[in-house]
Every structure is written in C-alpha cells, then in structure tokens.
C-alpha cells in the first residue's frame, strides 16, 4: 500500500532496522530475507533522500535524519496496532498476551509475585517478562518496548499516564548484633555510620532516600553499593553498617536473618510506589485489564 508515494511496508522495515541496528537481525524480526531487507533499505534511502544508516562493522549507525524519523514511525505503528488491530474485546481466559514489565526485585518480592499468582488463576495463558530497572525506562515506554514501569513515583515522569499503587515506610535496618542500633539513635549517629545503598541504572543517580538528605546539604558515607534491594540485608550481616529500606522488605527478610529495625532520626517522605504505562496503550483493553489487576492487588497489600 502506498501513501503519497511511500510504500507503507517500508515503515515496518525502517522500524525493525532502528530497533535491531543489524541488517540480518532486522530481516529476521519481520520475516524477510536479507536481500529483501537490503532492497527495502535502498528504497527507504531513495524516498527520504538520505543514507539513513551507515555500517560500523556489523552494526548499523543511524543518521540524524533517521533518528528524527524514528519516534514518529514507531508511534504510527503502535497506534495502528492498538487502534485498529487490537480493538477486539479482551478475554483474559483465552488471551496469550505477554506483558513486559520493568520492576525492581523489591516490588517483585513483596507485590508482583502476588499479581502473577492471581493472573495464573484468572488468565492461565497470560505471560510476563520482567526486566530490571534502567535509566531508559521512559524511552522503552515510548517505543512500546514495555507495557508497564513499576517504580518509586519520584522516578517516573509526567510523559505517560500513571497511578499510585501504595505507600511504604522507610526505616533504618542493620544486623541484630550491631550495638549502635540499641539505645538512642540520633541523626549524627545515622550520618556517621557506614551505609549500604541500592542504585539502579546510572550509578550516579541518587537513591530515593538521598533526596531528603540532599535537602539538608549532607551526604551519607556509602560503603557498599549493590544492584538490588534483596542484596542489602546480606551485606549488613555481621557488620556495623546500616541501610535505609522499605518496611515491607524488612518484614520479608526478617524471617530469614536476624535484623534490627529502628525509626529514622529525620522525617523522610513516604516511599510511594507507582505504575506507569505508555500513553498509546491508555485505551488498550488488555492494558486496562492488567492495570485493574495491579490496582486491586495493591489495595490488598498491607504493611
């Protein structure tokens, strides 16, 4: 099909090339032969009067013109998929939809596993791909590579719809043998002790709790940085270090290892977990159904 002289099938090829950045992989992703994909790329270059892609080894490097076109092309294809191809009624009992969700290990342990359990009963063929948090989450939403982001609300932008799941309380935790946690626990003691901290994506991005400390113009002495929440409690065992983590996570690990919990000696804001989804999926029946499951399960979640 042509529109103003452009074969619209070429947009599918262009999107595959932008996604895969490899001619062979792009061809495979849309079931074309490599010669057919090469021909499509030549036709794209002719229509747009631009090289669009240059070779660097086996990798395709996009030109500025291709980078400018990519968001609009992806948006058109996603809107077509959602508005035209996927508007039939969603039947969870029959669907084999696979949801791709960016979620931390903390939320997987205390919340999302319950969602998976419920969905397994209500929609046995619905599946999930869970990916670890990264800095490119918003871009992945825009590109349609993710169905949901489940992260602290402070890490979500206003570029896509979102909803609050629940609030948690941040507490200070250490090994039960840590004598510093018995007796008065002052702000000065909190700042003087060594800390274990989780950081996702950019290692220089502050942790959620750092925003309050930065407001005081102070910085903790971080002695151990780990890539996941579940790595924190083992790093406290047998040491005099402490960590600032959600109370739900402490309760999860309390049955497995001896931990001492104390209230934080300064007013940290509530730890707010939220879910965000692509704007282009706002009316997608499957996305709406999944959002309802998430919100209903969140309403059942107690500290």
UniProtKB/TrEMBL annotation:
InterPro entries: LysR-type_TF, LysR_HTH_N, LysR_subst-bd, NodD_PBP2, WH-like_DNA-bd_sf, WH_DNA-bd_sf
Coiled-coil segments on the chain, per record: none
PROSITE patterns with a match to the protein in the record: HTH_LYSR
MF GO annotations: DNA binding; DNA-binding transcription factor activity
Record has Amino-acid biosynthesis as a keyword: no
Family label: Belongs to the LysR transcriptional regulatory family.
Protein's UniProt name: Nodulation protein D 2
Species whose genome carries this gene: Mesorhizobium plurifarium
């Amino acid at each position: 099909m042509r529109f103003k002289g452009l074969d619209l099938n070429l947009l599918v090829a262009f999107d595959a090339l932008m996604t895969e950045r490899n001619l062979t992989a792009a061809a495979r992703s849309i079931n074309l032969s490599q010669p057919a994909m090469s021909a499509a790329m030549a036709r794209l270059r002719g229509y747009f009067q631009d090289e669009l892609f240059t070779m660097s080894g086996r990798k395709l490097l996009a030109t500025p013109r291709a980078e400018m076109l990519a968001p609009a092309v992806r948006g058109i294809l996603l809107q077509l998929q959602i508005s035209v191809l996927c508007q039939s009624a969603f039947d969870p009992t029959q669907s084999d939809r696979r949801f791709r969700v960016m979620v931390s290990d903390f939320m997987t342990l205390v919340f999302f596993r319950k969602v998976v359990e419920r969905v397994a009963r209500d929609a046995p063929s619905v599946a999930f791909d869970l990916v670890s948090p990264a800095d490119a989450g918003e871009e992945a939403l825009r590109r349609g590579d993710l169905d949901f982001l489940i992260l602290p609300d402070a890490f979500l932008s206003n570029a896509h719809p979102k909803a609050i799941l629940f609030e948690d309380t941040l507490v200070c935790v250490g090994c039960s043998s840590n004598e510093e946690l018995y007796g008065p626990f002052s702000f000065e003691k909190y700042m003087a002790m060594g800390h274990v901290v989780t950081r996702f994506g950019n290692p220089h991005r502050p942790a959620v709790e750092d925003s309050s400390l930065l407001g005081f113009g102070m910085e903790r002495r971080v002695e151990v940085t780990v890539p996941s929440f579940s790595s924190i409690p083992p790093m406290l065992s047998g040491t005099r270090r402490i960590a600032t983590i959600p109370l739900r996570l402490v309760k999860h690990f309390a049955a497995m290892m001896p931990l001492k919990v104390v209230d934080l000696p300064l007013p940290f804001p509530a730890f707010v977990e939220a879910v965000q989804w692509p704007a282009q999926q706002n009316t997608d029946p499957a996305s709406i159904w999944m959002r309802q499951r998430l919100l209903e399960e969140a309403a059942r979640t107690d500290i």
